[in-house]
Design brief:
The complex is a heterodimer of chains A (about 425) and B (about 240).
Chain A: H1 2-7, E1 10-11, E2 22-29, H2 38-41, E3 53-60, E4 68-71, E5 75-79, E6 88-93, E7 114-120, E8 133-138, E9 142-147, E10 152-156, E11 180-182, E12 189-194, E13 198-203, E14 208-212, E15 227-232, E16 242-247, E17 251-256, E18 261-266, E19 280-287, E20 294-299, E21 303-308, E22 313-318, E23 329-336, E24 352-357, E25 361-366, E26 371-375, E27 390-396, E28 401-407, E29 411-417
Antiparallel strand pairs in A: 2-3, 2-29, 4-5, 5-6, 6-7, 8-9, 9-10, 10-11, 12-13, 13-14, 14-15, 16-17, 17-18, 18-19, 20-21, 21-22, 22-23, 24-25, 25-26, 26-27, 28-29
Chain B: E1 11-13, E2 22-23, E3 27-29, H1 32-42, E4 46-54, E5 56-58, E6 67-71, H2 78-99, H3 107-115, E7 127-137, E8 140-148, H4 152-165, E9 170-180, E10 183-184, H5 196-218, H6 223-231
Parallel strand pairs in B: 2-9
Antiparallel strand pairs in B: 1-3, 4-8, 4-9, 5-6, 7-8, 9-10
Helix pairs in contact in B: 1-5
The chains are: A mainly beta (about 425), B alpha+beta (about 240).
Chain lengths: ~425, ~240
């Protein structure tokens, strides 16, 4: 018997240099096309049924390695930092050309209103084989694409100037070929963020520019009118080196290099109630929270979340905040116990590494690559496999190590490294 | 002078232990059997050290079985193993919350989850509450597994699956239970200590621990039962 064992052939499944592959997983509401799987909406084989909601993570095949993802209100943008000609793909709603002009195959003069699978977005680049796309961001009906040497490209709805160009009355946004390019900032733009109908730009020097709708003060420029040209913000962040900005609804947060957090915009849900009683704040205000140095912040529709240097997660605002069904609203940040993220005496070095926000959902990534979600489970967007709302952080089972996640209104997309 | 004499002893066993496995094995004597059922209803975790070997796959997942396949394993690092263990822990944690039959929408569920006290209190498939790597020296490795409602064969299957996930194969060389609820290796009696005096001492020592654990988990405990356990010790008159 021993000789038979010795003589058996040895199989090799993976060599020493086996690389870990990068994958994209999507889940949530599929009928808008935002998941990029056309067979969910229009089954290609007779026995398949249309899948309205994908409740658990589903792998999306992409042609290139995707480096940045953004989820808007019913659409998604994927971008790769390659030097090939095609750098950005979009899928989902395209009624305001937020995915650029997608030429219809049936009628060459018309464009698609719904894009069901990741389709390339042609960008008017001067040097298409040298410029790299660094980051993408999506709002309600507009999108921003950040490149390393050619500024920011904006497309989509511009009725409030959120694309950074002058508002044209009665402009039809659907089937529009117009992609605007923004270059005049005090230094290179390093981060772009889309709110619901406004845009924020963060430059290398630490300044923040804004344009778009301002009726809730979300442009932070001291007035409640719309702005169609990106203008620098002042207020409490004048002269402060901002290292991160975040927004998704009508409230905005900015984090400085010293760990302070500043907020402006809508405060109807107590997001800024720690500094003011008014429901709209149109100038950035410093939020004096004594919770430690803040590393990252994320804004949702009605709730906000911050991550401190020690790895603790604090939430405040309104809605399902993640501390059980009894905590519906708070103006002062409350900490979520680390034991809910898997921390225990057995695993004392688990820390939360990133926090992200959707419209009414929160997501947290730990340093072990696990994804925790909580909030309103709108059309299965939490990815837990259940349709009920989740009142405290719950693990999402993803076959791989989650590197980044983008949250939308009713869908989420994550970038995952395989094992 | 005559004292009470017992001619027959009722002995019951706690959680099962395989022929190939070793470790802590809880026995109840006489009236202690009733305590055994109570302890079973507490659903406390058991801790095992499981030894494994990379490179082989057998039909019954242990190293004495029939060989199915041999694979290379030099690409495996401790880091990869720990990543896989983190995933296993994650999915089992989810299963823990789901089988505990508590409504996730209540404040009570949230509080129990924070403290880590959510446990399935009824029947459930085997769940691993914690797993970590103690030793790693290719091709051998050793894991410490805390689990509920498991069988030793399930643990061997876990070793096999870890091997598959790492794109190789593994067999289980050793399964040793080091803790069963409140009873640890220190309380256990060795083969040489299987005599009346040591057994009596062991029962006395464990009494307090068992009592506190039962009270904590089941809420109320009949005091009188414990007194009967002492009285149940006498000559081992089983024929």
């Amino acid at each position: 018997l021993r000789e038979a064992e010795e003589a058996a052939p040895v199989f090799q499944y993976a060599g020493k240099a086996a690389k870990r592959k990068d994958r994209v997983f999507v889940w949530g509401f599929s009928y808008s096309g935002a998941l990029g799987v056309p067979s969910f909406v229009k089954p290609d084989v007779g026995w398949k049924k249309p899948r309205r909601i994908q409740a658990t993570p589903y792998r999306l095949e992409t042609e290139e390695k995707i480096s940045s993802v953004a989820c808007g209100y019913g659409f998604t943008l994927l971008s790769s930092n390659t030097t090939d000609i095609t750098k950005v793909w979009g899928m989902g709603l395209n009624k305001d050309s937020q995915l650029g002009f997608q030429r219809s195959i049936r009628d060459r003069t018309k464009g698609y209103e719904y894009v069901l699978e990741p389709s390339p977005i042609p960008l008017p680049l001067e040097k298409p084989q040298q410029t790299r796309v660094l980051q993408v961001s999506c709002g309600r009906a507009h999108s921003l694409i950040l490149t390393d040497s050619e500024g920011v490209f904006t497309m989509g709805n511009n009725s409030y100037g959120q694309c950074g160009r002058k508002v044209v009355e009665d402009e039809t946004y659907s089937e529009s070929h117009l992609i605007h390019q923004l270059k005049e900032f005090d230094s290179r733009v390093v981060q772009v963020v889309c709110g619901q109908d406004h845009s924020l730009f963060r430059t290398k020097k630490g300044a923040v520019y804004a344009c778009g709708w301002g009726a809730d003060g979300q442009t932070g420029l001291g007035h409640y009118n719309i702005t169609s040209v990106p203008t620098k913000l002042r207020g409490d962040i004048a002269g402060v080196n901002i290292i991160q900005v975040s927004s998704y609804g009508d409230c905005c947060l900015a984090v400085s290099d010293e760990g302070d957090v500043f907020g402006w915009g809508n405060s109807e849900y107590l997001q800024l109630a720690s500094v003011t009683e008014t429901t709209q704040v149109n100038v950035p205000r410093h939020l004096p929270f004594k919770i430690g140095k803040i590393k990252e912040a994320a804004c949702g529709g009605t709730g906000n979340i911050v991550l401190t240097e020690e790895g603790n997660v604090f939430v405040w605002g309104y809605g399902i905040l993640g501390k059980g069904p009894n905590l519906i609203e708070t103006a002062v940040p409350e900490m979520i116990p680390p034991s809910l993220f898997g921390w225990s005496d057995f695993n004392p070095d688990i820390r939360v590494a990133h926090v992200r926000c959707g419209l009414s959902q929160f997501a947290a990534l730990t340093n072990r690559g696990e994804l925790f979600v909580w909030g309103k489970n709108l059309r299965g967007c939490l990815g837990t496999g259940r349709m009920e709302d989740q009142y405290f952080p719950w693990r999402v089972t993803v076959p791989g190590e989650v590197v980044d996640v983008a949250c939308g209104v009713d869908h989420m997309v994550s970038m995952v490294k395989s094992f | 002078v005559r004292g009470p004499r017992f001619r027959r002893l009722k002995i019951g066993a706690g959680h099962r232990l395989d022929v190939k496995a070793s470790g802590v094995f809880v026995l109840g004597i006489g009236h202690g059997n009733k305590l055994l059922t109570d302890l079973y209803n507490c659903h406390l975790t058991k801790v095992y050290t499981v030894g494994g070997l990379f490179g082989k796959a057998t039909d019954d997942f242990s190293d004495t079985g029939k060989l199915v396949e041999k694979t290379t394993f030099d690409h495996i690092t401790r880091e990869k193993l720990e990543r896989i263990l983190a995933v296993i822990q994650g999915t089992n944690h989810k299963a823990l919350l789901m089988h505990s039959n508590i409504d996730m929408k209540t404040q009570e569920a949230y509080e129990l989850a924070v403290k880590g006290l959510i446990r399935p209190m009824g029947k459930s498939p085997p769940i691993i509450t914690a797993i970590r790597c103690l030793q790693f020296a290719l091709p051998e490795f050793q894991l410490e597994i805390h689990c509920l409602h498991e069988t030793q064969q399930y643990l061997r299957k876990i070793v096999h699956e870890v091997g598959l996930e790492l794109k190789s194969s593994a067999v289980c060389t050793q399964v040793r239970r080091i803790r069963d609820g409140v009873f640890t290796l220190d309380d256990a009696l060795l083969r040489t200590q299987w005599n009346l005096q040591s057994i009596q001492n062991a029962i006395w020592d464990c009494q307090l621990k068992v009592k506190t654990e039962l009270e904590k988990t089941l809420g109320h405990q009949d005091e009188s039962r414990l007194h009967e356990t002492d009285a149940a010790m006498a000559h081992a008159a089983d024929s």
